[in-house]
Design brief:
By secondary structure, the chain is α/β, with parallel strands linked by helices. The chain is globular. The chain has a seven-stranded mixed β-sheet. Helix 5 packs antiparallel against helix 7. It is built from seven helices and seven strands; from the N terminus they run ββαααβαββαβαβα. It has a single domain, classed as Zn-dependent exopeptidases (Aminopeptidase). Helix 5 links the parallel strand 5 and strand 6. This is N-formylglutamate deformylase. It holds the Pfam family FGase.
Length: about 270
Amino acid sequence: MEIFKIIEPTVTKVPVVISIPHAGTFIPEDIKSKMDPEISSQLDDTDWFIDKLYSFATELGITIITANYSRWVVDLNRDPENHALYSDGRVITDVVTITDFNGNKIYNDDHTPNQQEVSRRVELYHKPYHKKLNEFLQKTKAEFGKVLLFDAHSIRKSVPGIRPEDFPDLILGDNDETSASPELIKTTIDSLQNKGYGFSHNHPFKGGYITRSFGNPKENIHALQLEMCKTNYMDSSETIYDEANARRIQLVLKETLVNLIETSNKI
């Protein structure tokens, strides 16, 4: 199984790269055999179908990199040294997590991945994805003089382990306005607000490890994370892709990306 899949643009390339780190579902058998079979059959924290939702982006000239492995093998949006992204009391999942977002144990009672196993997975799965993503960003920056990384995510509407309230439909994260230029941030906010979806900026998510580690506006490398509720494009059970529902949010996403391309060309 390849660690990631690269989807090249179908028209002239633009200085935008979409990263989809959590849509993968593959778990090697040696790892899966140590997991609780009921939990591992659900993969509840997967960003289900987010790669399908954004598939239109190649028609805008955008390159997409999407992970094939489950985030329960290794979480590509976590610090490999396990420095926590938040400290507000929510369930914190590590680069190799042992629980889901609600604190439910993933592994059988007699197994917890040790540090050697964590390091092995970081070397095998985490580092290659980040290396390839960095190559794309550097290559695109060399070609255009700047690059925007758009990190695409989704989550259940309600995850009590993170917060008791439902999430807003769309949550833009830019590490408290430090991972991208003010112009790109404003463009994104203007594109997402008042479109019939609840919107929030940097709360309760302000961008994970990918956004924070790659975003460096002073070097003309910009990074934004968009978290969205699965109810935006799936059915009410959040298990089945809903084509009609997805088309509505795709209109907003397409407008946002087109506007970001235009802004990128000006900065």
